[in-house]
Amino acid sequence: MAFASLKDVYIDQLQDLYSANKQARLTTQKLAAAAKDPELQKALEAGVIGIENGMTALDAMIKGHGESPTAEFCKGMEGIVKEAQAHALDADFTNDEVQDAVIITQYQRMVHYALAGYGCVKTFAKRLGHDEEARALEDCLKETRSGDLTMSELAMGGINKKAA
Q: Residue 2: is its pLDDT beyond 90?
């Protein structure tokens, strides 16, 4: 894709974020199934819903610009997802709490990628005068931050202590 304007970059980044969310959703579902702590499972299941909400918002924005949400594949999230698979799901664990701690770590890496992506596209939306889209992207940011905070609270609230 040739980038001739900020709008071109904006649409490309919306598509990239949609792809990242699509990949993160599947991995988060797997992480939820592997988690042993019931609160962690519940938080990951809520994370799946949050990711789906983000995908719905991104889908509407991208289509509103006459583009396809699936026109881009996010290689950045692909790498993070491979790491999550290798470290949280395929590794051998002899302690469930250790696996739960690793699950939190890998989930938060995906979340931090999403936070960066949402922050950038929200800034582009504001600059381009897409105020409604900027508000929707801020909502996505808030939901993503909330999920990240929940994971930190679970980690500090006992999972990491049990894993030690």
A: no
